[in-house]
Write a structure and sequence with these properties.
The protein is an alpha+beta fold. It folds into 3 domains: 101 residues, no CATH class; 101 residues, 2-Layer Sandwich (TATA-Binding Protein), CATH 3.30.310.80; 251 residues, no CATH class. Helix content is 30%, strand content 29%. The chain contains 11 helices and 22 strands. The strands form 4 sheets. Strands 4, 6, 10, 11, 12, 19 and 20 form a 7-stranded antiparallel beta sheet that branches. Strands 13, 14, 15, 16, 17 and 18 form a 6-stranded antiparallel beta sheet that branches. Strands 1-22-21-3-2 form a 5-stranded antiparallel beta sheet, covered by helices on one side. Helix 3 runs antiparallel to helix 6, helix 6 packs antiparallel against helix 8 and helix 8 runs antiparallel to helix 9. The longest helix is centred in the N-terminal third of the chain and has 30 residues. The N terminus and C terminus are likely disordered. Its main location: membrane. It is found in: Membrane. Pfam families: ResB (PF05140).
């Protein structure tokens, strides 16, 4: 039997087959072809009915998922402005189109917000009337039995010597024992079960609204920033301490959680043998943090953040920070410190820039600025054994290649610069002895002497590690998690619970024997309904056993013919 046939059958059963679902029925209205046109209020009502239909809600949900695709494939300003600028520089043709379509700010774009708001309104407009209807169904009793129970998809009947009242009382007890809502309805018992199906359906859609609210609340009041910290350095949760910081439009900087922490050490271990050689095994950042004057220690691991009040500190990346010392032409130390370098592959081959902006003078006392492009590998394969790329992430054979420049770094122009890149537009490259003539490979403890008495740079034996942390406040996460769990629970209930009705009619037949009829009707066809009805019938026959069928009278045998001897006589 098709779904359409089932629906028509339920419609033909009147009240007994009605309201098995709170799904709104399409209003065909009294519109007559060629009749009068709709007025303003008529069009508004039509648009509202379309918007609040489940069909449109599903379309909007699909559009929302589809609209999120550009946000996951195209760099977003809200996540990383540097990647956005790099993308724009590499795609000059697509950039104007993407900017007009707001593809670099998908989640705050006009079209994404419109889909989001329409979905929100659609779900509310669909759920509110269904909720009131469901509450009304909970307060009402199951409808009485239809006149012809034998028309229902699950049906059985038998005859018993028990009295009709006794059968109905036994049926009421059996149905209530199986957690049916049951009551006497005339000469029958009406029962219903499976209300949690509709409850689950409503919970699922309410949970979607909760998740939408949580998403909006989180976007408005969130804060998220990143900080790269070298071993031994610290961080205080103030706006000026962040390397980058993003927040919602309703977030105030005075809402930042007051705390600070210091990166005491970073530990990273890697698989040394086998097909998974180089795979990280341990990433741990040992920190000491303070909140309200109390000093504490903690270990931050991947997916195990440090939680301080409403803030969470996540470990997201790590690398190496070689310690270098730069001296000017007169032998004066003008720079000494750890320089974080950024990894470019899984074996932590790293690049970066060393900038000496103040205090440097050449041998003649002339003020200049120095810059060095650094290329670092924690495990060098060795001279003549391939290109200078790391063979393993650990510090087994560290080597650093340096290329020096002198002139102006361009930091006085007022334009922001990337600290990991060197602007050589106004600089001249040093030509040094050894190496390639312009770059030298240094082992820990070695020094590269700059030409013409310009000074030197030393790669110290002390190599520190750095860790990158994300400090975030997401006030809507708990609400979103609650909505997600509720949505899964509601969807499970709506898929695996069947709402069904059962009627048991017991009347005295013309021959004085009680005739028992039992039938069931479900919201959708299922093989479980006849099975359940059979179990109920077996339980009920214990109280109202069927009578043995009356044997039909046997035909009287014909008279025996006379014996052959007498016939011969």
């Amino acid at each position: 039997m098709s779904k359409t046939d089932t629906t028509e059958q339920q419609d033909n059963l009147g009240e007994a087959g009605a309201q098995l679902s709170t799904a709104p029925t399409e209003d065909r209205g009294d519109t007559v072809i060629g009749g009068p046109t709709l007025g303003v209020f008529g069009w508004i009502r039509w648009f509202w009915r379309q918007l609040t239909s489940m069909r449109v809600a599903l379309i909007l949900l699909f559009m929302l998922s589809l609209g999120a695709v550009p946000g996951s494939l195209i760099p977003q300003n809200s996540a990383d402005e540097l990647k956005v600028q790099t993308f724009k520089d590499a795609h000059k043709t697509l950039t104007p189109l993407y900017e007009k379509l707001q593809f670099f700010d998908v989640y705050s774009s006009v079209w994404f917000s419109a889909i989001y708001i329409l979905l929100f309104v659609s779900l509310i407009g669909c759920i509110v009337p269904r909720s009131w209807q469901f509450v009304g169904q909970l307060r009402s009793r199951p409808p009485g039995a239809p006149r012809r129970l034998d028309r229902l998809p699950a049906y059985t009947t038998w005859r018993t010597e028990a009295e009709p009242e006794q059968v109905r009382e036994a049926a009421l007890a059996v149905l209530k024992g199986r957690r049916f809502r049951a009551h006497h309805a005339g000469n029958a018992v009406a029962a219903e079960k499976g209300y949690l199906r509709e409850a689950g359906n409503l919970v699922f859609h309410v949970a979607l609204i909760v998740m939408l609210v949580a998403f909006a609340y989180g976007q408005l009041f969130k804060s998220e920033g990143g900080k790269l910290i070298v071993e031994g350095d610290g961080f205080s949760n103030t706006l000026t301490q962040y390397d980058d910081f993003k927040s919602g439009s309703q977030f105030g900087t005075d809402e930042l959680e007051p705390f600070s922490f210091t990166l005491n050490s970073f530990t990273g271990t890697y698989e040394k043998n086998g097909p998974q050689r180089g795979t990280p095994r341990t990433f741990e950042a040992a920190v000491g943090y303070s909140q309200g004057g109390a000093d504490k220690k903690a270990v931050i691991r991947v997916n195990e953040p440090l939680i301080v009040g409403d803030s969470k500190v996540y470990l997201i990346a790590h690398g190496y920070a070689p310690v270098v010392t730069v001296k000017d032409g007169r032998g004066k130390t003008v720079f000494h410190g750890a320089v974080p370098l950024l990894p470019i592959d899984n074996n932590i081959t790293s690049t970066g820039a060393i900038k000496v902006m103040d205090g440097y003078r050449d041998k003649n006392g002339k003020k200049e600025q120095l810059g060095f492009q650094a290329f670092f590998v924690p495990t060098f394969a060795g001279e003549g054994r391939g290109t200078m790329f790391s063979q393993f992430p650990a510090l087994d054979f560290p080597v650093m290649a340096l290329t020096g420049f002198h002139g102006s770094l361009g930091v006085d122009s007022g334009l922001p610069q990337n600290v990991y890149q060197l602007n050589t537009a106004k600089m001249k490259q040093f030509a040094v002895k050894g190496g390639t003539g312009k770059a030298n490979r240094l082992l820990p403890g070695e020094t590269m002497t700059l030409p013409d008495g310009a000074g030197s740079i030393t790669f110290e034996k002390d190599i520190k590690e750095w860790a990158s942390f994300q400090i975030s406040q997401q006030p809507g996460n708990g609400l979103a998690l609650t909505g997600a769990i509720a949505a899964i629970a509601g969807l499970t209930g709506s898929l695996f619970i069947q709402r069904r009705r059962v009627w048991v009619r017991a009347v005295r037949g013309e021959d004085g024997v009680t005739v028992v009829e039992m039938a069931g009707l479900g919201r959708s066809e299922s093989a479980k309904l006849p099975e359940e009805l059979g179990d109920l019938a077996v339980a009920l026959t214990a109280e109202a056993p069927p009578t043995a069928p009356v044997p039909e009278p046997a035909e009287e045998p014909a008279e025996d013919p006379a014996p052959s001897g007498e016939a011969d006589k």
